[in-house]
Fold:
Amino acid sequence: MTDYREAAEHSKAWPFEEARKLLKRYRGERGAPAPKPNGEPMLFETGYGPSGLPHIGTFNEVLRTTMVRHAYETLTGNPTRLVAFSDDMDGFRKVPTNVPNQDMLAEHLHKPLTQVPDPFGKFESFAAHNNAMLRDFLDQFGFDYEFMSSTEQYQSGSFDDTLKLVLARNQQILDIMLPTLGKERQATYSPILPISPKTGHVLQVPVEIVDAETGIVRFEDQGEMIEHNILSGGAKLQWKVDWAMRWTALGVDYEMYGKDLTDSGVQSGKIAKVLGARKPEGLIYEMFLDEKGEKISKSKGNGLSLDEWLRYGSETSLAFYIFREPKSAKQLHLGVIPKAVDEYFQFRANWHEQDAEKRLGNPVHHVHNGDVPTDTIPVTFGLLLNLVAVMGESDKAQIWGYLRQYAPDATAERYPDLDELIGNAMAYHKDFIAPTLHRRKPEGVEVAALERLDQELAGLADHAAAEDIQTIVYTIGKEGGFDNLRDWFKALYETLLGSSQGPRMGSFIALYGVSNTRKLIASALAN
Structure:
């Protein structure tokens, strides 16, 4: 692989801008940037709440963090780690509506998720089920990561030294947190959430520190004041305190999070400082929006799921879309997929002709970590969608037949990406385009223009060049009495394809075939 280190030092691509923050995190002699002390790997982290299944937000966060990790490795050659951390010791607050055994789950509310039985009956706990789904999910996309369970870290004692610090500096943490809370919440707030020895519940109760060094606290449990050891799994911490404790205990250097957690990041950063650590470097990214511009919500079910994108577009096109402008809100709905797919392949083709500096600014460089595929595809996804639309009910073999008329060497073996896209296009057409198609009859000057187009096409070979056809279409539009050339192309789309938007007509006719296009024109004129 080409050495991009020199170009990376000046690249304005956001993963390199983020990675350069890490160069300044540790200082050597005379304040010069230095690796992490003792040769330790730079630690990147992503968090996951296992009360639900992985989703497109999970993919987004791990993907973007991985891109920064690779950028840092390019800049330095230093070792790195990526930890996917599951907050599986959280209390089970609400029974999801999309799982079986609702009544059984309701009996285990307020227990740590790792103590709630798996409603699917496959794993030792609900958290174990969802953790397995997370690992399968990340493995599916080939992410390089280490899975880490909150419960295992608490119960093994790995967090004990930092928990003692939390107890010893409890008042300083309260001084940070209490001003951010309402009066009612202030009265019961404690950084420590003890696990009740009586019920196994994660308790939200005021806690008195008895002995910070041994981890002994006092609190009321079912009307009785008891003393309890919070170490080795005897308690967990409130969310913002837990985040800061984790950063401190693990030595996290980089973690990005969404704009909705901006305030949490500020408070957790202050708490980390109280604990003698530093807040990780990181990017605060904007949230995804649906087609109405509203924030995507799992509970609302608006927006686009990961499975939906992968039904209609490739994984690499999603990664390409996610890469771009992370600090800007992005709409995520079915309508963005075709453009993202075509732009991905366009940028992929361009990458091989670019110098090192431009390659590092090209999104596909980060999608493929510099190992960008060399093969291209002979048609755009948009053109493929139009072909599928006019063919109606068809199978892959029939579509490949048309493609071979346009590109004689087109086979699934030679173009595996195109073979996948054909399946995506068929699904997208069936679910999203077909219900909206309506071919209207031509009107006014459109009739004469279509008749002339048919006459011109009659004089061409069936496999005429796309550019020659495009010239004919363009000339007819210029001479056909249209107020605006766009009106001619819109008329072609609406009368022949049934849509208000469409492809470059020369390319479409070359792909679909001159004789087949003449049949479309005849059908339109017959109306």
Notes: The chain has four domains: 5-156, 289-367, 381-436, 445-526. The two ends are 59 Å apart (CA to CA). The chain is about 50% helix and 10% strand.
